[in-house]
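Entry:
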Amino acid sequence: MPSKLKRLSLPVVALLTLLIFTFIIGCTKKEESSTKTESLSLKRGGIFRDAVLSSVTSFDPVKTIDVATLRLGQQIYQGLVDIDENLTVVPLLAESWETPDNKIWTFSIRKGVKFHDDPAFPGSKGREITAHDVKYSFERLLNPGTKTVGSWIFNDIVKGAKEYFDGKVKEVAGFKIIDDHTFRIELVKPFYPLLTRLSLYLCSIVPREGIEKYGEEYGQHPIGTGPFILTKLVPDQEIVLSKNTHYWEKDADGNQLPYLDGVKIKFIREETTQFKEFEVGNLDVSDIPTAMYPFIVDESKKLKDKYSGYQLKTAPAIEVQYYVFILAEKTFVTNKSLRQAFNYAIDKESIVTNVLKGRATVAKGVIPPGLLAYNPDLKGYSYSVEIAKEKLKEAGYPDGQGLPEFKLVIDTGVLTEAVATAIQNQLSQIGIKTKIEITQFNTLLEMAAKGKASIFRLWFAASYPEPELFFIQFLSGYWPPLGFNFARYTNPKFDDVFSKATQSISESERIKYYREAEQIVVDDAPWIFLYHPEAAKILQPYIRNYQFNGLQLSKYKYIWINK
């Protein structure tokens, strides 16, 4: 008999909750009472005012690789499962699921949930979602004709997925519609992280009618089941989301969600400008500029006197910042010693202390602190000019002689430019000459995907709490546009160890294999490993229920305004 999967007993969730969010467990009874009292005086209505640093141009889930679109798009769309504020997998459009062996998964689709009202439907009235919509959405994610960036989610694990992607069959054998509200996924092998993968924005459920009506313009006319509806999208200016008055979900006290009437999001590319807008009352939430952080927040993570009337939210970000080498470029592709020289030449401790003002931890490798399989004993690259020069000589370029000038392609931002300048100066100490090229983030992604330069500044912020997501960036063959392996890194040994990690049911075995996989990647140095940042937000005093954790995915549906 299939056994019900116990979501709250997931070892990943247990470990993460213990290591990262012990402050949640440590809440006092007095604080719980205060929260309950506040919920009783809940106020509806109002517009929440937010800002993003990078532009959003399309809300088509299968084409999304940038964080800003993902975070806003999850207010519009929903998938089968979700990750809650405690980093736990919870039901969403699937109200329950079963698996006997981590290979066959059966999902019960929630009844009565409807797509947003839209002219794509008869009478402009949204219809109920069914298992047919799930199958359509997942096969669309595997269809190269959609310009998908998410085929990797199912390609190697679902029966018939690869054949479908290659155009050899008309449907995916492993996607089964049992009835209108029962959907089954059959895998080629046990795969432990399936549920967390399904929480990705890429796996959002979309209606066929919307795709057929709007075609290539669908991203400007998204239709989901989420608590908010897109009513305005002006690239580089603003986005307006309006309350979905037919939303299906209620809170724990039976109150209809969402509480807000809507959300207005401005595009403000600089943190300093964003913070100034917050200070004068034009925004309800803001990032805190790193240069200003010591003047706003004290060493005990409390707001200083001038700002004590606001609210502060902090969490270790489940994120890694790095520079990627494009290994299709002949200078780097076979020269591991050269890549290692770059890594040894960077004084990451100095960057964290002097540029980031302590708001980060040095990255020895890929996995952030607090995540399952994080290895504090990982052998990384400690700063050493002497070793860096030895590696340069080993690479065939003593003191940098014979090397071209490299472009460091970065996106706009005061902090990004400051880090790049520090890296440029440090590389010059061993004879490596660089030139910083600044562009918009979307342009940078396009350039990196096409390999139009040899070194790019990138970062990866997890959207689910599983090491597997970080390692997907190193899988052989998952180069853009099929995946996120911008480095074009290939190592069969890594692929084999990674596969063992994702198939293992034992947590100790998964940790062992993930750590082995990470050491392989670090030794090969396809990246310059930099740091794991701290996430922080400052809020106006009247904002309530702003959820914030290491995933940095705030759900607007829970926010209310106490005015």
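The chain has 19 helices and 20 strands.
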